Amino acid sequence: MAAPTNTFKQALTQGKRQIGCWMSFAEPITAEIMGTAGFDWLVIDGEHAPNDIRSIRDQLMALANSASHPVVRIPVGETWLIKMVLDAGAQTILVPIVESAEQARELVRACRYPPEGVRGVGASASRATTYGTTSNYIQTADQEICLLVQVENRAGMAALDEILQVDGVDGVFIGPADLSTDMGFQGNSKAPEVREVIADALSRTKAAGKAPGILGTNEEATQTYLEMGAQFLAVGIDVMLLTQASRALAKEWKAK
User: Fold this and answer.
1) I want to staple 230 with a disulfide (CB 3.0 to 4.6 A). Which of 64, 132, 153, 225 is the partner?
2) Tally of CB atoms within 10 A around 10
3) Which residues pair with 72 in a beta bridge?
4) Of 72, 77, 62, whose CA–CA distance to 41 is shortest?
5) Per residue of the chain (256 residues), what is the pLDDT tens digit?
6) Phi, psi (5° rounding) for residue 57?
7) Exposure class string for 67-105: b at 16+ Cβ within 10 A, else e
8) How far is CA 73 from CA 43, 45, 56, 173, 192, in A?
9) Bridge-based pairing state of the strands 69-73 and 41-45
10) SS3 readout for 196-214
């Protein structure tokens, strides 16, 4: 029995657009709800949401029967953390603040078993192998792992062409907030200078045969990124969806 097919990676390889959403509640019940919404992919955010390996695992379990593919964003690109997340059952990893091709190569190695990588061979007792029932997991897992790297500062942009040449990097995700702040615009990703860099990065990523991705948190930004050629596009954040809808509802009915 082989590792499950990574349908998200397959879709990216085929050039299909994938629409997703961010999840920041760090709760399995909200993940399960989000899994019914119809998104192609959902991010379990381990960088800015209060997640740990157990809550990540529980959200992966909550999405097990959903058609939405879970993408786990780890807080930092450490090999030991990637090992834990993969053993918990994640097949797609999103790594923030990637600034060099060498860093990208080390991330690829962390996602693969020896001799190509350094992933520990102990998944037989983990969720990734359905606790040992996926008998050929070690032989087939590498090809189903999808590695997405975030390029979100000036150093990363300067190294983008080299990062794009790294075999095993499946997609590049642009971080507008971090990028704009690093460029001196303090989170203003609408600044023309920032938009120009984003458009160029998305275009270069696509031209290199990798999938370009980004997050938009309002309709104007999301439409702009779509027109720029983003292939895997996150169109919202669960916490923001709740806050915006609940505040609008309260305002509407208190005004009557």
Assistant:
1) 225
2) 13
3) 44, 93
4) 72
5) 899 999 999 999 999 999 999 999 999 999 999 999 999 999 999 999 999 999 999 999 999 999 999 999 999 999 999 999 999 999 999 999 999 999 999 999 999 999 999 999 988 889 999 999 999 999 999 999 999 999 999 999 999 999 999 999 999 999 999 999 999 999 899 999 999 999 999 999 999 999 999 999 999 999 999 999 999 999 999 999 999 999 999 999 999 9
6) -60, -45
7) ebbbbbbbeebebebbbbbbbbbbbbbbbbbbbebebbb
8) 7, 5, 10, 11, 28
9) parallel
10) HHHHHHHHHHHHCCCEEEE
Give me the helix-helix angle, 53-62 and 79-87, nearest 10°: 30
Output the CA–CA distances (angstroms, integers) from residue 41 to 2, 23, 67, 205, in the order listed: 22, 10, 8, 20
Write out pLDDT tens, residues 117-159: 999 998 888 999 999 999 999 999 999 999 999 999 999 999 9
Q: Record the tokens describing residue 97, joined without a space.
A: 């603040």
Closest Cα to residue 87, out of 124, 142, 42?
A: 124
* Residue 48 annotated in active site: yes
Instruction: Decide: 203 and 229 in contact? Cβ < 8 Å.
Output: yes
Element containing residue 109 per DSSP (H, E): helix 101-111
Question: Choosing from 1, 5, 10, 48, which is the catalytic residue?
Answer: 48
Q: How many residues can be counted in the chain?
A: 256
